[in-house]
Amino acid sequence: MRRFAKSFTQQEPISEAAIEAAVAVMRTGRLHRYNLVEGEKGETALLEQEFADSLGVPFVLACASGGYALQLALRACGLEHGDAVLCNAFTLSPVPGSIHAAGGEAVLVDILEDTTVDPDDLAAAARESGARFFVLSHMRGHIGDMEAIVSVCEAQGITLIEDCAHTMGATFDGRPSGTFGKVGCFSTQTYKHLNSGEGGLLSTQDPEVMRRAVIMSGSYMLYDRHLAAPAPETFRETRLVTPNMSGRMDNLRAALLRPQLAELESRKERWNALYRRLEAGLAERALVQTIPRPDKEDFVGSSLQFRLPSLTRDQLARFISGCEARGIPLKWYGKAQPEDYTSRYDSWGYLTSTRPLPNADRILATLCDLRLPLTFDEQDCDDIVQLMGDAMDQATDTTPNV
């Protein structure tokens, strides 16, 4: 049996420019973001300023992780213990986990055929729960109808927080992902669009939200060392009533990220070329249903999702096993138990809200997920399609064994 030889979790090496920047920080010994010499701006503050410029927003805060950024956003926006917080039924566990960690109660919202949130069910869930917050996860890089979503939030008085872990560099109708809500939260974990191992970025245009976030992240009284934050004199009241929940990014990770940020657009083009090649190949298979993308969405195709609705559960299981045997580790959201990073909402046992989610149940039952690292090329995509086709033929073969 032929196997695909490359790893689906192997990222590109860190560039020489980023390595040199990181080594320069290490040579100083000043890894902590606020440990600066006179006249020095610091890698973390410069990263915040550059990322803010890329989004066209005034304020950005670098922090320990994307999940921490979500917790920080909720707290800075005024979440109180026990408050209901809406979020997509289709997302990864750090999203409801962040809501739980911040003291909220996650209320799940059903999805549409393209896996994005259903605006009608969003409105219904808001009415039922009285929620004042919505953490919108652009799960696996799919951006929903932002006009409809924002309209529901405005009509219901809901604070929108965007989880952009999979949409850094993406836009909807020409507007950057992360700028539709009060706060945008991004991740720089290894498998995201910028790689610092772990890390997060929080963006907003609201000065009071940023003041709270800066103090909560652990600035102490050093908030004047930020370049993408409100003026230092405006912190006078916030600094004394806001708890320190230490979760800063350090200069070493920021040094790794700044050269990568400059390459984000070219990475996006490369990812999308791989995505379109793989998508086109899979779409030719009669049993594979790819996920439609709206015209207004300019996405970053760092992973690809597809459905197999005509297969039985046994056939799907055989297909997944066949792909695994051929070196292709597909993730299946219909699997009974969580595996690796993949889980479904019914495995998050700490959730207290139970709403019927018929679309999510039906769609996730046959939904598969595949990483697309930039260490692949278009020939690799063709090989993957061929091997997946072989696995599909074997899984659906009805010829009796002799």
TrEMBL record:
Transport recorded as keyword: no
Keywords, comma-separated and alphabetical: Aminotransferase, Pyridoxal phosphate, Transferase
One biological process term in Gene Ontology: polysaccharide biosynthetic process
Database matches in Pfam families: DegT_DnrJ_EryC1
Modified residues (N6-(pyridoxal phosphate)lysine): K192
Record-annotated active site: K192
GO MF: pyridoxal phosphate binding; transaminase activity
InterPro entries: DegT/StrS_aminotransferase, PyrdxlP-dep_Trfase, PyrdxlP-dep_Trfase_major, PyrdxlP-dep_Trfase_small
Entry keyword ATP-binding: no
Highest taxon, organism lineage: Bacteria
Family classification: Belongs to the DegT/DnrJ/EryC1 family.
Listed name of the protein: Aminotransferase class I/II-fold pyridoxal phosphate-dependent enzyme
Species the sequence originates in: Halomonas nitroreducens
